[in-house]
Amino acid sequence: MTTPLADQERTRRRAPGTADEPRLCGEARTAFELSIERRPDPDSGGLSKADAAWPKRLRRIVRASLTHWGRPDLVETAELLLTELATNALRHASGSDIDVRTYLQGDHLVIEVNDGSPLCPVPRYAGPDDESGRGLFLVERLAEAWGVSEDGTTTWCTLPLSKGPSEMESAAVTAPVLHETTNPGQVDL
């Protein structure tokens, strides 16, 4: 199913090479999957305004999903982890699509981002004046585990379901969050 969404297409599909099927909780499916069509900036080849809007949308989707699944204790950390993985894919991938999948499996929340690129992401340690370069460091610090698929196309991380906010360090305390503003007349999705 493909629907237009703010000059981009969103397609529900299963990301290739992913793990077991998401479990069912009662009658509710405890997963979301989507594909984002990348729209790099035509002049610089970097992150366009259309691509830059996706992290905010993904935070809203993961917040709504986890709340619906009865796991509001994971929202802040999952939002940050998904945002970091997706932003890396949007900035550095060369493929035309980014596949995102978040699901409950066993006693973990799994977040997967497939960028189609066989180049493995490598954490770097940014200097105090660097404006970027901390994403994988944050993933490394906040996720229980993280890694890259054997073919290099999917970066994933997990959060334990057994730990609540009192046992896990809150992402809001450990990482700065940029305040998002909207342009007048812009409609937020």
Helix content range: 25-40%
What general form does the structure show? globular
The description of the largest β-sheet is: 7 strands, antiparallel
Radius of gyration: 16 Å
Pattern of helices and strands: EEEEEHHHEEHEEH
The quaternary structure here is single chain
Q: Could you tell me the strand content as a percent range? A: 15-25%
Instruction: Look at the structure and give the mean pLDDT.
Output: 74
List keywords for this structure.
globular, 9 strands, two-stranded antiparallel sheet, disordered N terminus, single chain, 26% helix, alpha+beta, 189 residues, 5 helices, seven-stranded antiparallel sheet
What report would you give on this structure?
This protein has 189 residues and is of the alpha+beta class. It is 26% helix and 24% strand. The chain is built from 5 helices and 9 strands; from the N terminus they run βββββαααββαββα. It has a 7-stranded antiparallel β-sheet with strand order 1-2-5-6-7-9-8, with helices on one face. A two-stranded antiparallel sheet has the order 3-4. A hairpin with a 2-residue loop joins strand 6 (97-105) and strand 7 (108-114). Helix 2 packs antiparallel against helix 3 (75-92) and helix 3 (75-92) runs antiparallel to helix 4 (135-142). The longest helix is centred in the middle third of the chain and has 18 residues, at 75-92. The chain is globular, with a radius of gyration of 16 Å. The two termini are 19 Å apart. Residues 1-28 and 164-181 have low confidence and may be disordered.
